[in-house]
Write a structure and sequence with these properties.
76 residues, alpha+beta, SH3 type barrels, five-stranded antiparallel beta sheet, 2 helices, 38% strand, globular, Transcriptional_repressor_C, Fe-transptr_FeoA-like, transition metal ion binding, FeoA_core_dom, iron
Length: 76
């Protein structure tokens, strides 16, 4: 499952960043979206992009195209 497939208010754990562009992966990780962190989809913009996610106590907006690069494991 990837971040763009998560349902509203659903939680998951970031498993990996699937992107070959090291600069983009670094920017995503600098926002706190790192493997092992729990993430929750809080809101989706009316046109479907961006997605608002919560990591820890921080709310972050992520483009849908970038969200498709973040692999998740469902939280138990």
């Amino acid at each position: 499952m990837t971040l763009n497939e998560l349902k509203l208010q659903q939680k998951a754990v970031i498993a990996a960043l699937n992107h070959q562009d090291i600069a983009l992966a670094s920017r995503i990780m600098a926002l706190g979206l790192v493997p092992g962190e729990t993430i929750e989809l809080m809101n989706i913009a009316p046109m479907g992009c961006p997605l608002q996610v919560k990591v820890g106590d921080t709310l972050i907006s992520v483009r849908k195209s970038d969200a498709s690069l973040i692999a998740l494991q469902t939280a138990s």
